[in-house]
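Lecture 7 notes. Example A: sequence first, then its structure tokens.
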Amino acid sequence: MDEKEHKLQDIAGDKEQATPDTETKKDTVEQNTVIGEPVLESTSDTDTKISTTEENQLKEEPSSDTDAVVSSSKENQPNKDDKVLEEIDQENAEDAEDTENQKRHQIPVLDYHSMSMENLVGELQRLVKNEKVQAINKHVNDIKHEFDHKFQEFLEHKKEEFIASGGNEIDFRYNSVTKRQFNEVYGEFREKRNQYYKNLEQSLKQNLEKRLGIIEELKGLVNVEEDINTTYKNFKEIQEQWRNAGPVPRNNYNDVWRTYHHHIEIFYDFLHLNRELRDLDFKHNLEEKLKLVEAAESLQNEPDLGKAFRELQTFHKVWKEDIGPVAKEQREEIWERFSNATKAIHTRRQEHFNQLEASYEKNLIKKNEIIASIRTISENISDNHRGIQSQIKEIEAHREAFFKAGKVPQKVNEATWSSFKDAVRAFNRGKNNFYKGLKKEQHDNLEKKRALLGLALALKDNDDHAMATPEMKRIQSEWKKIGHVPRKYSDKIWNEFKNACNHYFNKLHSERNETQKEEFANFEKKSACLDRLKVFQLSGDKKKDITAIKEFIAEWKSYGRIPFNKKHINGKFNKIIDALFKKLDVSKQESELLKYGDKIKQLAKSDNDNAINNERTFVRRKIEESKSEIRQLENNLQFFSNASEDNPLVKDVIKNINRHKKALDSWKAKLKNLNIMENNLNKESQEKEIESSEEE
């Protein structure tokens, strides 16, 4: 880096870019003090912000202060290219009011649009706690803008839910902790900001008066009758006073500087009496301004546009505040170079902003697609809870995507936001209408479950298990078919119903456990009997062997019921018995009758008329079933009238007919034996009655 660049760097320092801040300007103490010059009657932005000394060089030497500043030639009017100069003037005016303002450029502006309300509150707290209040005004305004939008949407959603649940709109109230936190932090910011500007106001007023006084001293140097060297020395002292006079209100900044420079130029014109002294200053000022021009021109190669513009702003500040005028014949030329370098940066920035606008247009397309998707969902609200919950997740995903989609062009920002809110609100209305209808259905379900609960409570102590058990099972089945009930009743009614059912079935199982003990004892006995049967060997004496087998059968049947899941043991027993009868050349029908004979004996011993009648009914039903099967098979056989008896299908039908006929004969024989047993029982009963009457 050469000496010139070092010197320029020292001049520029570390000053940063500034951006206009609307709210800060509103809150800044209004300064409408007219500078003590008749030429500054107007302080409007249009008339005062753009014109600078080098921009509006006078074509001829001014004859008075008024003529110099009031000149309204065409060259004094702003054009489109000069907007960047106006912007820089405004930024420097703001920074000049308080150097802490510059720090706002070092505070990153986050994507507040994509943040949740809670995160916005957190970021606001961080800024208010850690940063200078005058440096965060734009950040706070952006945060408040996004928070207000999001909270309004949230509040409307809650209001719709309140109305959908039967509430009256005028009764709606919502206490938001997040909103309360935001208001507290924002209130703290406003209090700090107001206190800051209140303290700043007096200082700015005093500095303004001081600078106006310095201008008056500067004016008094012209045409004074004293040694020119003494006058020049006084001039240098006035310049030093000016540099140390402190900041003035931003809306007076440009006017004061313009007036000061105007009288500086008048003084230099006055110095024509000592051209050598004047030219020495002009030469120094020209060298310094050339450094700024070259530095500004080199910014064309700076890739960081933000950094380039901040440095350019600093150059303009140095140009205005630290360097005096140059020779009149060089003023326009050097200002033109500086102005062109400034406009070149502005052109690059404008191209950059145009690219941003193009990206904003893409974001707009994306956001419109999201809005369309939300509308599609809101027009097709699901008719069930699960579907609604799935759609709620979709809406939340779309909502998050909307906030992350980025900025849209400012001209459609509010319209896009409004369309988004309308689409979400339409879904919320449809969702709330569904749940409003669902609540009525849930109340109907509650009444149905209450009725079932009443039945369960009435049956829970009933000992008629034959009736109560199937009824309790039916009630449980019906309960499962009924849908949801209101959440505040759900747990209570379910626990009452469950307790009633558990009470009944626990009691039933307790009684069955006692029965099962006897059944397991019977199973153990049958297992022992089966083990002895497995090792039984035929003696060769058929009569003796049949008697032994019948004893096994009688013993087996004497043990009664066994557990249901153990009944396979009966099959094992019957299989061995059938095998033994087969070895003894006893037909299946005979073996069936032998086994049935033992059953008849058991019935006879039981002395239970109902058991005998039930058995007779069972046997007769089996007889009818066998007859029906035989008739059906014989009818089927007629379809094969022309078929040979060797036909496999004919053989199969005949085989089945014969099998059912054997079964029919067996059942008839069982019925006959049952009738004989019953007649014998009747005879025995009659004989006992006769004997009893004779004894009397």
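Example B, a different protein, same format:
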Amino acid sequence: METMATSHRLRETTLPRTSVDLPLSVDRQAPAALARQLGDRLRAAMRDGTIRSGERLPSTRALARQLAVSRTVVTEAYQQLYAEGWLDGRHGSGTYVADLTVHIPSRPQGQDAETVAPPPSARVPGLDPGPRSRQEDGAPTAPATAGGHAGPVIDLRPGQPWVRDYDEAAWRRAWRAAADLPPGDSPDAYGLPRLRRALAEHLRRARAVAVGPEDVMVVRGTANGLDLVAATLLRPGDRVGVEDPGYRVARNVFAARGAEVVSCPVDGDGVVVEALPDDLRVLYTTPAHQYPLGGRLPVPRRERLLAWARRTGAIVVEDDYDAEFRYDVAPLPALHGLDPGRVVLLGTLSKSLAPDIGVGWLVAPPDLLAAVARTRYDLGDRTSGPAQQAMAVLLERGDLDRHLRRMRLEYARRRAAIVEVLGSLVTGDTAGLHVMVELPEHAVGPLSAAAAERGVLLDVMNHHHHGGVPAVHGLVIGYGSASLQEVRRGVAVLAELIDRFARREAVAPEAGP
């Protein structure tokens, strides 16, 4: 855990460097693994106040010696608690208990939420994070007219990654290398060969997609790749399927190219294959982490989807959205790897690195890729050469992989903070940078407005429906652009509001005319 703590850019501490004395033990005869036992005991001690916020834990070596277990047992327990947000590494000074003021204790058996949940002031001491303002940290500040709340806000809307923690040395090195190259005078419609090689290797390692540089085109992002595919494949009036609820930009891109956009239903696992019409020219889907419901398309359904595409002649456009970030689940193969001749794979660095990079990829069968390249040439479309060179350096040196590993751990802590408070209300939390909370339809609007008044910005499911009567109502909660502390505070506000509106729903039937 000491290695983990020093591998992250974390705030310095002024707390004493003495460790708390932990009265812990593990039972070698118990069926549970020793690391799990230790994690459970530490978690319980932090819940009941035996171990307090800010206290330093013993080193893995010292605690292993105290318990007479291997250091690996302690390391695994610490790593799990760190991922859940219970522990906080401090650079150069060890492992500390995180701020537990917004953790909700386990509910005593037989008591309901109303009798156990502490008042808002007890769980959320205030939205102000401390002496250093959130505006200095680069977080948004709400206008005075936004929900009646002026000042710093907690933005829990989906779609944005964390861009305030990156390897500055690697970043500068990549852009210096790009600046050392002369300007290009004839952009390649396929992209720089150097970056295409690096992306092919990245896809092979990260997504088990066996492609070569000749199968990869460098685009400016998912929307750009989608537009190029639409301009190449579609004629006015062609029918195109888009998930509903789903990514509104995809719908807009196809409509702008004159296609008839068909809403295709999704459930908790992803697109419903049996509901797909047979006359679609193209189907756009997000199987790695459906946006916004959060499902992962199971392998049997993936196979049925590809069988449908082969039978109907449709092209499946796979947006590999959020595939880089998975929690507690093994990765599923990309659709493209199951049928490279029928699937176009789109990806981007906007979520894994930063939205303003403007670099992504399009993987397609050779004939289709050549047709897309001709379309791109005709449209004068191109991807920035210096940006491509810089991204190639980040990939070749392994800097992007290291950044992804670091951010997976950081996002896992934020996701765990949401699940810790909202529990079974949360769905779609196995991957990505957002989760969903299903709520009664009538409660969504008032709850969202009340949260905005408290300085917490939320997204509602209705924004992502395209037509007909929405089957699911609720909130889409993003945790990419908010810090761990902001996520904890924001979700505590949300938990209080859910309790309030749920109680209002419970008493509503008794109200007379």
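Note on Example B: Residues 81 and 87 are 6 Å apart (CA to CA). The chain is about 40% helix and 15% strand.
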